[in-house]
# Entry
Amino acid sequence: MNLLIVLLYLTTAAAFVSQSVDLNQVLGPAGRVLKISPDLLAAMLFAATMVWLGRTKSLAMPGKYLVLGVILLLHMVVGAIINQVSPGAFVWGVRVYFAFIPLFILPLVYRFSDLEIQRYLVFVLGLCLMQLPVALYQRIFVYPYTPTGDVVRGTFQSGAIMSIVLVMAVGIMLALQLRGKISLKTLLIVAPIMLIPTLINETKGTVVLLPIVLTAVAFFHAEAAKRIKLLFISGIASVMFILTFTVAYDVYFPDRGNEGDSFKLIKFFTDEALGDLYKDLEEPKPGRVGRVDSILYALQELDKDPVKVAVGLGIGNVSHPETMDFVKGEYGDLYEYYGAATTTYASVLWTTGVMGVLFTLLILWCMYRDTSYLRNRDSYTAAIALGFSSVAICLPVAFLYKDLVYSNVANVLGLFLAGYIVSERVRIQQNERSRMASYIVKRQPNRPLNVGKPASIPGVLQTRN
# Structure
């Protein structure tokens, strides 16, 4: 196993444990090293990747991503200049947005074999399965009397992010099974194990995200003739999960709603869900900002300056209150007061403005198009592309549910798989062009030679009489 793959595994493992609230509390001051370990390993991975690039001189980089990346970086620099972001805050912002870009670059430089990517996915699967015993331990032993499921978060910083990652992992597993890369028995054993933590952590968004993922995989996998059957099966699976979630919600959270009420989850979605999204407060209150509110507050405040509507307040300028002083942004107080970290959309709006949100969605659309090119082929890469199609469809909804900008796991896994799919499309296109050129050369008929003039037919080997 070469150094690049070792660093990939270490960075992924570090991402899964570095933001664990309980583990960092146990470690105390030593937890600071754990928190920055993914960043340090990603930096080492970047250095090793550049060395590999220098040796191979091979880079499967589509021009569109290079252009979008440069424009986005310039946009952030302009926003930082306009808002006079301090050097420390700017460096912190760059770290937040670009710390794990090496995971995207790695597959562009190093081509993974099917066996290598399969082993990596098995490793990630093991880390996902690890969430069940950790979640059960938290629910039963650490927080047995806590009336909320938010404290059940596995090794993640929040239960909602754990649920989002596990749901998307189930989508990729389903895609692998439909393409015959894993057995149905394996899927039926592994998927429930990954979904149990979402039942005991009160992440109600799971009942929305999982049906989207299952439906997307079923829709993109089958031809029109088989699509209705698969969509029907995915619908049945979604309904079964929702019913199971509803029962689990009544059992584990009896204090929710009025005493004696049944089907509290249904009552939440019919009576309380809108209020959870939009509280319509005249003034924001820390901890009470709804998800839609967080976006509206950002637009409302930025709208006072048209330039800031476009570029935001600058990356790193709206940082967590607990951030060290020398990297703390000027608008750190907005982080909690306006719920800047409530959703991904709000987080990106505050720091990069409307243009930043549009760039984010455009990049996601480009990645979806790359999965569309690959997913109908017969290969291991195509199966992964099918699963990632569901991720690309689900992410805009997940962005409204939780802030994923600061999630190490979501960024590491998302950027690596995106880079893998992007690079494979480039390499497949290059191979197809090469085969087409070879075919044209072989099929080109011989032309008569002109007397006194040497024949010159580009691409065709000439022989002397």
Summary: Residues 58 and 458 are 27 Å apart (CA to CA). The chain has 19 helices and no strands. Residues 270-275, 453-465 have pLDDT under 50 and may be disordered. The two ends are 54 Å apart (CA to CA).
